[in-house]
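hey so i finaly got around to running the thing on Sugar ABC transporter permease from Paenibacillus crassostreae. pasting the sequence first so u can double check i didnt mess up the copy paste, my clipboard has been acting weird all day
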Amino acid sequence: MLRKSNNSGSLEPVIFHTLNTVFMIILAVVTLYPFLNTLAVSFNSGVDTVRGGIYLWPRSWTLQNYRAVFITGTVLNAFWISVARTIIATLLSVLLTSMLAYVLSRGEFYFRKSFTLIVVMTMYFNAGLIPYYFLIKDLHLLNSFYVYIIPGLVSGFNLIVIRTYIRTLSDSLIESAKIDGAGEFRIFLQIILPLCKPVLATIALFVAVGQWNAWFDTFLFASSKQNLSTLQYELMKLLSSTMNSNSNPGMVAGMDQDSARNMITPISIRAAITIVAAVPILVVYPFMQKYFVAGLQVGGVKE
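ok and heres what it spat out for the 3d tokens, dont ask me to read them lol
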């Protein structure tokens, strides 16, 4: 009886891990399939894609879709505008938000509760889109690259997250630095910032993804200037223009193989530009993952 009980007990972890592994594999397949299918379509001949049946592997390999995306300066310029706004906005936002969070975390700052309340209120209330548009207009930010940077420099949510993390640091570190004669800027730059790498990396990823994926601000504030167009805005215009466009499979009947391979269709172009827009963030994320996971644990453990 004892031996049977031990065998029965030893099977439970095996069954659990087997079912868990199967479930995670299914979840991974379901999650990755749309991206892999889009990748396959982007490398597949446009005319062949119209026939259907493309799943995880291109049936007729071609780079013509990507050539069509970058053949004009529109998408390439939009790509560099997106890169520039993402890098600049992320660096400035992390720096300024962390500086303000450090101030609000200090007990000796008398108005910290009042300022924190004001910051929290901005997370729940806003004046609306029309007053915001007129504010941007009055600040002379319309049709300017600065409209991508200045309005979103400090986020209330990010500020609260960084402030919460800083308050978990030992006050003795700051007190020791002050005894040694360090000023507030030196304490912030040489002590607080290095210790806040996990939460800063998390916030940087949030800001970078938000900036990279943003297109509505381009539509509202910079749509009249093509040289300020972003990659996501170009993607949005492409998706809008091709949403109701359907290629006719019968039109390829009389085409020779070379003509069919070089023909571009809305579906193939849409897939190619989607991959171009998604790849940069996918490349950056693995390097930020360990900090991202650590940053998400802020406030999860209380002592």
